[in-house]
Amino acid sequence: MFELVGQGGPILVLIFALSIVAAGIIIERLLYFRKIRTDEEQVLRRLKSTLEKRHYEEALSICESNPAPITNLMKVGIEHRDYPEQTIKATVTDAASMEVPSMERHLSFLGTIAHITPLLGLLGTVTGNIEAFGVLGEFGTGDPAVLAGGISEALLTTAAGITVSIPAVIFYNYLVSKVNHSIIRLENRVTELVMLLKGPEEV
Q: Residue ranges of the alpha helices (H) in 53-143?
């Protein structure tokens, strides 16, 4: 592996480094979404039970001890429970929009890696071929194997760039979809929270 990286030159080293960064972002985001999804279902059951009993201080304590996008919304709603329904809804909706950056964390960088690694691979191939044909022009075709070896090494960067780009694009699109679904789910929770806070009083 490291021998191949050495053959491809500095550009292949850069592509290899970007692949490690991309893998780190993907793993971190997958674990993040898995955690908040698991925690969300457990915490919501506790919060619903607590809010139905009108134990607001206990509900706030649950939110503070389980930080996540949904509990952050719940906390804002509970703190504004004495306001009119429309005010609560607007406040919680604003809080939901503030959670988007944390869900999108590092995704723009992952998208950038997905787009530039094929270009870096192409750049490495072009510069490698220029160097190979420069050797050909200087020394002639005395040994075609030398030229073939130079071109082969140059093509390594294109192959590496595409190899890194394909999974990066797939996971980028998947994670963006996860963010969008999470935002929709949070918006749905806003109405649910308002009903929990105001519904029993209006019956």
A: 56-65, 69-79, 85-103, 107-139
